[in-house]
Structure prediction request, 277 residues.
Amino acid sequence: MNVLRSTFSSLQNRNFRYFWFGQCISVMGTWIQRTAQTWLVYQMTGSAFLVGVLTACQFVPILLLTLVAGTVIDRYPKKRILLLTQFGFLLLGLAMTVLIYTKLVQYWEILAIAILYGILQSFDTPTRQSYVVELVGQKDLMNGISLNSTLFNMAKIVGPSLAGILMAQFSVGFCFLVNTISYFAVLLGLFLIHQTKPLASRSRQRMWSDVKYGLSYVWHQPNIRLSAELMLVVSTLNFNNNVIIPIFAKRCCIPARKSMQICCPPVGSGRSSRPSS
Prediction:
């Protein structure tokens, strides 16, 4: 019992518990939608390049806006920002669900929604990460960060797996519906959080001055700069999975399954098997 209490000590905080469990459901839904979205675009276009454009449209706004978003986040209560971003995600998910079920969805509409999603995520992700500090306090800070990181890594594994099952059993549109519903969980958790004094700075400096100070601080702190450089490399290479996996599944695994062959050698086999040309 003592081990469990120390492992999940930050969950003893009622506000963080509401926030964390809401995120468990919502982040899982996000990865379900992200997987279904790339598969939908590849089915519609048959182009790996256009799938890559979709990924760029979703993540380029994050690259351009995150520094500015950080200064905005510090100036306003984080709970209010999260309510706005999560409700915005809900509306975008609902729009995609309606477009798919009414068979009106087009590629340019998916790109537009992806850009809006990226803009919201530019504000949502740093807000969520800094909100953990505000909810758990200094005592359970490391435990809260660890649980938050565990949540996101678990969602990256479980979410795409669930997306595959849902697409096979129901439809691509059903994945977007599940994601839309999942946002109600985090919104409910945020409404249940009660803070006596929400933190918000009253900086009188201009936003660009804050951005310049933040970049200068990172550059002159070797440990932080190294972490930022490593994240740049990992993130640049890692997001290629969103493009590669649906193309691999469509071109290799599905034809192999239809012809009763497999892409990889069976367990215990000493030689590889190639699908017939």
